[in-house]
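Board notes (copied after class):
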Amino acid sequence: MTSLGPTNPTWVGSRRLLRQLRDIMAGPGTAQERLDLIATLIARELVAEVCSIYVRRAGDVLELFATEGLRTDAVHATRLMVGEGLVGFVAAQAMPVALADAQAHPLFAYRPETGEERYSSLMGVPIVRGGRVLGVLVIQNQTQRNYGEEEIEILETTAMVLAEMVVGGDILNLDAARNDGETAALPQRLEGVPLSPGLTMGVALVHRRRVAIERMLSDDPELEKERVRLALDALHIQLDEALERPEISAAGEHRDVLETFRMFADDRGWMRRIHEAIGLGFSAEAAVQRVQEDTRMRMAQANTALLRERLLDFEELTNRLLRQLVDDDDDAMQLPENAILVARSLGPAELLNYEPGVLRAVILEEGSANAHATIVARAMGIPLIGRLNGLLSRIETGDEVLVDAENGVVYLRPGDEVTANFELALAARGERLEAYRSLRDSPAVTQDGTQITLLLNAGLLADTNHLKETGAEGIGLYRTEIPFMMRESYPDVATQAAFYARVIEDVGDKPVVFRTLDIGGDKALPYLQGGAEENPAMGWRATRIALDRPAMMRHQLRALITACRERELSVMFPMIAQVSELDAARRLLDMELERAVGLGLAVPAHIRVGVMLEVPALAMQFENLLPRIDFLSVGSNDLVQFLFASDRGNPRLEGRYDVLAPAVLNFLKKIADSCRDSGTQLTVCGEMAGDPVAAMALLGLGYERLSMSAVGVGPVKAMVRSLSLNDLVGYQARLLHSSAPSIRRHLRGFARDHGVEV
């Protein structure tokens, strides 16, 4: 690392260049005129014949916005795609390139309209803001020039200032852009994967909003270093206060995490890089941001889970420090009433941080059908679309958004005609939902008289309202972990008992099955950390945690017993892989019952014990398992991922394996046959229960109890009431011997030919 000081050429050159940039931007003239002056200035200061500024537009297009040295008529005429040529390569990789003989490079893309054939060497750096590449800054020389690290650093520093100009509209005027047919501000249509159904319209709200930096440059480095010191002191106080909280003060993994975070805040290398950036002429907040961008670009390339976790810690720490510097209270952000949440990815706890009823929809660059955030969104009735490539580079908070989560389409900044057509679609969907509501009080009985029980999956108090709205016959799965995820500390027994009692009161005389804590994987509790795992879905989670932390399990069971006094208690243990694990969990339940009786406390009138079948190995132990339980619930989401060894959260595997594969259906049929023979009550509470086609297949296998999110009840009931089950059973039985990867197409054909509503 180059040392910094008053005589350091990097320090001197950077500060002189930044001062001149500031003067140009504060001076007269149009945005284009000032941009032309900037290109000329950079070329002069870096002793280059050419300086060119490319800005990223809609459709991943890099447009030449200004140049010194190339033909002026090439401005706004020369365009490259991201990944095309050396300029596109810099944008795609978000890394600088410095070549003495650029034209000899295989990626060099010659554009005759620019007149750049005279120039041999090239140096380009990305214009980056908030992890997004906004453009590319390039210099060129006629002679073969070996650019040094100091020159690259000066150009990167300049690019950071240009990034703020782009974001602030100084370079790309947004009002003008809306009239330009190729800008990011124009209406756009993005296609993704529908994950939670629905149609809605609203205003974009980018998750974890960018901290606004109004002052980029400073002439007083000592003052800026002092500002950083004071902000860091305030951050230390915040962390120390967190460590002193009663629920954190005790030793354990939760405290270790915060201690590690605290040590990260004391990292001398981090502070040295911030001081170096201040020495280049940046303000304190701009220096912190520069180090953040540099670290983000480097660590984002990491292929290890440990480094990716460290990047998340670093991002959170940096954002906290930035908020201290700019006096930005993140909690004071006003959310629009019709917010469409925009993010790269989202965990269930993050989703639950937003108040119920605030979010109209969620749209993600990543996401998968069986991720727990998706499941929570379905439970809350929030439309969600994932796999929207390039979403974050095309949208800003405040943009109007139309979300078609039926077909996986998002419209950004739509025109009047698109909006009018979308409103017609909304009206049509409303009519369809009204038709489902008309079935609320009608029984779920097939055409040939088979009664099907439709239940709800729930996890929030508000979910109990859906019982009356949908006509569901009870709650087949209450996810007790969701209230835990919404708290900053572990709830005591009294708090838990009060919550469960409220659920029971709201449900009335309808049954409810409480699943004990299913945490771990992507369902993390802020106050219970188990450390990084390479494969968390198959790691320390659910009942495995509970048996390692028996006090936690006993407290939850005690709360359930207290809440269900003199009523029936149905409790279900998740992620059971061996009968011995069920026996251990059952012993904890018996201990709590004995405790309550010994204290003379009221106990449930009847207790039903069940397990969730997610681990295939458990199905091989039915001889010993079924006599021990009152009911069995199939968790199809985890079961299918374990059957196929396919991570349900991995977008690369999205759609590779279908729940309607013969392998899955044959496995499910064996479960149904075993439960029928033993008289064990059987329910499916995974996501396939709410899919009308998949639910139809389950009925054909002998399943008569389905538990699903509220949005699935109407469509599934309509399917049930239009189905002749006897016709389906014979047809589907033949398909189970197929070698096809899925029989979904055949089942859709059956539904079409037999008038079944799917």
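Comment from the instructor: The chain has five domains: 9-177, 188-209+337-430, 221-331, 439-456+636-684+686-758, 474-620. Residues 496 and 541 are 20 Å apart (CA to CA).
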